Amino acid sequence: MRAKEASAAGVQVVDHPLVAARLSILRARATPPNEFRDNIQQLAIILLGEAARAWETRVVEMESPLRWFLGAELARPIVLVPILRAGLGLLDGMIRIVPEASTGHIGIYRDPQTLRPVRYYSRLPPNLSQAQVLLLDPMLATGQSAAEAVSILKAEGAERIQFVCLVACPTGIKELRRSHPEVPIIAAAVDLELNSAGYIVPGLGDAGDRYFGTT
Ligand code: URA
Question: pTM for the full model?
Answer without folding.
Answer: 0.95
